[in-house]
Amino acid sequence: MKKALLLTTFAILSMFTLLKAQNVFNPNDRVRRWVNNGSTYSNDSTAATANPNPTILGLQKWVSVKTSGIDSASWGKDYKPYFINVNGFGVTFRLKFPYSYGNPDSAGKKYPVMLFFHGAGEPGCPTNGGIYNNEKQLVHGGQTFRNRVATNQFDGFLLYPQAQEATTSCWSDWGVAPYSPYYNVIINLLDSMAKYARLDVDKVFLDGLSNGGNAVWTMTAVYPQRVTKAAPSSSAGAGLNYAEYVHVPMWFATGGKDTNPTPGYAVTTYNSIKASGADIRYTLYPDLGHAVWTNLWAEPDFVPYMNDMHKANPLVYFQRYDFCPDSAINTKIGITQGFYAYEWQKDGVTIATRTNGVNTIIDGSSIITYAGNDITVKSFGTYRVRFKRSATADWSLWSPKPAVIFPKTFTVTPPIAVVGTRSKVLPGEDGSNTVPLSIPSGYSGYQWVRVIDNVVVSTTNTYNAPVGDYKAKIVEQFGCGSSFSPVFSVVSVNGSPKPDAAKNLSAFTASVSSIQLDWNENPNAGQNETGFEVYRSTFAGGPYQLITITAPDVVSYLDQSLASNTKYYYIVRAVSDFGAADSSNEASALTGEDIVAPSAPSGLTVTCASRTNVSLQWTAATDNIGVAAYDIYINGSKSYTTTKTYFAINDLTALATYTFAVKARDAVGNQSQLSNQVVANTVMQGVCYQYYLNPPNLAELPDYNALFPIARGIAPAVAFTAGGAGVDNFGYLWEGYVNIKVAGNYRFQTCSDDGRLYI
Question: 503-590 belongs to which CATH class?
Fold first, then answer.
C-alpha cells in the first residue's frame, strides 16, 4: 500500500509474552506444500505435503503454497517455512539460514538478521491459501538477497514474515506499532531465534517496501532498542519522536514521480530527522515512480551498509568527528536510550557508567555532559560503549566501530583555472579585456585577493579578472582555515620578455568542413611561447574568436566542423607567462562546396492507418556531411518536415486515398531523390501497434516516447505476436478505435504487469 505514515504520539505498551517453544529451526528442513481437504493446494506435486494446525501456540514447522515468481526448485527452497503463534495471533514466515551456519568452526557464532516487511500486495489471503500461503512475501528481493547470502556477501539470516488479509482484495496493512499485533509477535520471534538459532539481537537490519516500508518506520520509532539499522523503500517517515530513534542509522529511498510519498514529503522527513543529528541517508530516483526498491538494493554500498552494524556503535551527532586543533571540542555521542546499563570508555579507560537509571562520572576531564546513553565530550580520543539490556543480561560487545574524535587538517585551496577557452594575456585578439577564472564550487565561502594591494575582489567561486596577479582562498564549513592558492597571473600583452611571433601563416582547404593551418616559429627563441592562440573570423580583419590554444612548439592546427562553401580568416598569436608577440599575418581559405546530395531514403512503409491518420517509417539516408532533415510529400506536394525516420500524419480526410514519398536534405539544401512511393487508404484496418523490448529487471517502466520501437504494424486485433514466442520483458503501444453504435457510458480497462489506458 502506498501510504505515508505520520504519528504524533506513541504509547509504549508491554508486549512480551513467554512462549512455550522448542527449537524448530533446522537449515535442512524441507519446503512442504499445504494439503487442503486431502489434495495439495498447488501444482507442485514433488514437494512434501502437510496440513498443520495454526491454533497451536508457539513455534512450529509450516507449509507454503506454490506462488508465481518463486522458483521453488532452486532458490525458493532455501527459505524454510515456519509459523509462530503468540496469544492466539499467528504469523507465518520464511527463513534463510546464514552462509556459514552449518560450519563446525562457526558453532558458537551469532548471526545478524535482515528482517523484511513485504508490500501491501503480497499477503496471504483467501485466493492464495491464506495462512498457508507463506511464499508470496518472497516475490520482491527474495532471490536477490538469497544470492547474497549464498555467495557470502551477507552471512546472516533472512527473515520474511507474511501479513494476512481476510478479504479477497489481497491488499494488506502491517499496521501501526505498538497497536498492531504483528510487531509483538515478530519481537517474540527474534527473541526465540536468539535463544534457539544463534541470532544476534544487536544486529537486526530492517528492510521493507511501500506498506512494508511504513512497517520499518513504525517499528524503528516505537522499538528503537530492537533495531540496529533500517532501509525502507517507497515510504517516508513515521512519528515526530525523532530523539527516541535518532541513534538508529537509516537509509531510505523514494521516486521522483511518486505521489505517495511525494519527493517534497520525503525531503521534509529527511531534513527533520537530519536536523536532530541523525545518521540518515536519503536517495531520490528522479525518473522512477513508486517502485524504487530494486534500485536501492542494487546500490554498490547497500550490502556493505548492511554488514556494518552493531547496536553498540555510537552515533556522533551531526557526524562531527573532527575539530580544528586550536578550537574548542564539543560533540555529542550516543546510543539508543532505554537499556539497563551503560559503560563508556575513552582510549580504553572507563570514564562513565549508568546502572538502573543512576549515572556515575568516573573521569570528567573529557566530559561536558553525561546522560547515560548520550555523552558530550571535549577531548580528542576514541570513545566506545557497551550496554546491558536487563539486570540479568550479558554485556554487549564494546563498540566494534567506536567514535573517533580527531584533529582536522588545514584545507588546501585548489589552484585557480581559466574557464573555457580564453586568453590570460590581455587584451586578446578577440577584444577581451578580462578572463574568467574559477576555483571548484561546493565550499561555504570564497575570497579572491588582488596581490598588488591585498584588496578582496570577489567572494564567489568565479571572477572575471583584468590584468594583474590574484590569489584565492576557500572557506569550508567546520574548516580550520586554508592557505591561499598559488598566485595566478593575468598577463599584459605588453609584458616582457615576449615570445617570438608566429610567422608565415597559411591556410588551405582540407575538406568541405575543415581547414588546415600551418605557421613557422623561431626554434632558437630566447623566450619560448607557452602556446599559440588561434583566432578565427568570417570577415577579413575580424572580429575574431579564440578557438584554441596549442601546446608549446606546435605549428599546425586542423579547424573542423565548419560550414561548407564558407571563407574563414585566421591569425595566430604566440603567448607566454610574461606577454604576447605580435599576431601573425592573416590567412584565409574557403571550405569545399558541398554538392553531394544525400542518398534517397529507402524502405518507406505504412505502419498504421485509420480514418484520419497514417503513420510512415523508412530507412535513414546517408550523406557525406550529414542528413539534416526529411521532407514528406503527400500526393506530390511537400507537406511536412522531420528529423526522425518515422512520422505520423493526422487530420486526413476519411475514406480517401493518399500517396506518400520522402526526400532527404542536408544542411546546405542538397536534396535526395524521392524514396519509393507508398499508397494508403484512410479506412479502419485494425489496431496499430508499436513493439518494444525492455531490459531485464526493470523497477520502473521507461519513457516509451523516447524509445524507438523494434517493430510497428497493423493487426486485426490486440495480439502479442510481434516478438515471437518465448519473449519476456516487452512492451506494446496499441492505437485504434472502438465503433460504438449505442449512446451510453462505457468503461475500458487493461490488465497487465504495468499498463496505461488513454481514451
Answer: mainly beta
Distance CA 586, CA 288 (A): 55
User: Using one digit for the tens of pLDDT, what is the confidence trace for 101-112?
Assistant: 999 999 999 999
Fill in the amino acid letter for 418: V
Return the closest-CA partner of residue 185 out of 164, 168, 205: 164
User: What superfamily would CATH give domain 315-407?
Assistant: Immunoglobulins (2.60.40.10)
Residue ranges with strand state E in 667-744: 678-681, 687-693, 711-715, 730-735
**Cα angle: 330, vertex 334, 336; to 5 degrees:** 155
Domain 411-492: which CATH class? Answer: mainly beta
Residue 250 to residue 265: CA distance in whole angstroms: 17
pLDDT in tens, 659-708: 999 999 998 889 999 999 999 998 887 777 888 877 766 656 677 777 77
| Cα(113)–Cα(155) distance, integer angstroms | 9
Residue 708: predicted pLDDT? 73
User: Fold match between 411-492 and 602-681?
Assistant: yes
- Provide DSSP, 71-83: -TTTGGGGEEEEE
Encode 598-644 in three state secondary structure.
CCCCEEEEEEEECCCCEEEEEECCCCCCCEEEEEEEECCEEEEEECC
Amino acid at 122: E
Closest CA relative to residue 83, chosen from 166, 141, 146, 164: 164
CATH of domain 602-681: 2.60.40.10
Residue type at 159?
L
CA distance 356 to 748: 65
Fold of 32-252+268-277+289-299: Rossmann fold (3.40.50)
Question: Which residue ranges make up each domain of the chain?
Answer: 32-252+268-277+289-299, 315-407, 411-492, 503-590, 602-681, 686-759
- Give the separation between CA 486 and CA 154, rounded to whole angstroms: 48
Contacting residues for 25 by C-beta, under 8 A, at least 6 apart = 80, 82, 95, 97, 193, 196, 197
